[in-house]
Design brief:
The protein is of the alpha+beta class and 207 residues long. It has four helices and 13 strands. One of its GO terms (molecular function) is hydrolase activity.
């Protein structure tokens, strides 16, 4: 991990730049150690980095890096618990308008695509784009399809989608270029936190 200056009141901790669960565990641990500390105004984790905005009345660029290192090294193991929660998300794959395209891209049947998408337990690597939008990984390479060449103007709330090695759920209606594989009735997106585990369960709606 290295620390870089971003501005007069923010720094960024950079880890190895790849999608990897071991790196996510390090990011999650360090995020929990840094958040809520005096003078740390915002602590925002991502795939392989943590952005920290600090109170420049308390810290300077000359001492903030050492303060961060002290924070990461000062707490006992019992205080660095990073246990993640498991969410099982019901998905109606009959409402996936891009399933045929994904099956053609992968050279697989639609049921095989669904089986691959539900077989893996995903981790929350980052939250962004909009409140509650959790970036989940890692999708099986056989169905890791690129984003749509032209984004949709409206993606319905609850759409479950894939873009390359990531999958996600749209927490509200918005524009978007991800490939929609199904729809969920889950509606508690703000519960998601970095490191949480997500498992998709195939269901059939009664509509």
């Amino acid at each position: 991990m290295r620390i870089e200056t971003v501005s007069c009141d923010s720094i960024i901790l950079r880890y190895e730049a790849r999608i990897d669960e071991a790196i996510l565990d390090k990011v999650q641990r360090d995020y929990f150690l840094l958040q809520g500390r005096e003078g740390f105004i915002e602590v925002v984790p991502s795939y392989a980095s943590i952005w920290v905005r600090f109170d420049d009345k308390i810290y300077s660029l000359q001492n903030i890096q050492q303060k961060v290192l002290d924070a990461l090294n000062s707490l006992a193991p019992r205080q660095t618990k990073t246990d993640s929660r498991l969410f099982e998300i019901p998905v109606d794959y009959t409402k996936g308008p891009d399933l045929i395209r994904i099956s053609e891209y992968a050279g697989l049947g639609i049921n095989e695509v669904i089986a691959l998408h539900t077989a893996h337990t995903y981790r929350v690597y980052a939250i962004g784009f909009m409140v509650g939008f959790a970036y989940l990984g890692v999708v099986d390479q056989r169905i890791a399809i690129p984003r749509l060449p032209t984004p949709r103007q409206k993606v319905p709330k609850g759409s479950v989608a894939i873009a390359n090695e990531q999958t996600a759920i749209y927490p509200k209606e918005s524009a978007g270029g991800w490939n929609i594989v199904g729809q969920t009735t889950f509606d508690d997106f703000e519960k998601f936190k970095i490191g949480d585990r997500i498992r998709f369960v195939s269901v059939r709606s009664e509509e």
